[in-house]
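Exercise 3.2. Students should predict the tertiary structure of the chain below and write it as structure tokens, then compare their answer with the key that follows.

Predict this chain's 3D structure.
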Amino acid sequence: MFPDDEPIYCFSAVFAPVDPNMTIYHDWYVRSSRSPPLTHTDRTPLKISGDRIGGYRAYSFK
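Answer key:
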């Protein structure tokens, strides 16, 4: 369980070919108790484009 007043982060590292043009997503789910099911709450798009041989890093938070 996470405190209600603290942010939660999701970090992604993507190693992509040169000159990518794509979108990845962070899908956020919540479980109101310790038993299933999970409920989908948000989908955060992360646009990847440009020329970075070393890869891309991004994060989102709620």
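Discussion points: The chain has a mean pLDDT of 83. The two ends are 14 Å apart (CA to CA).
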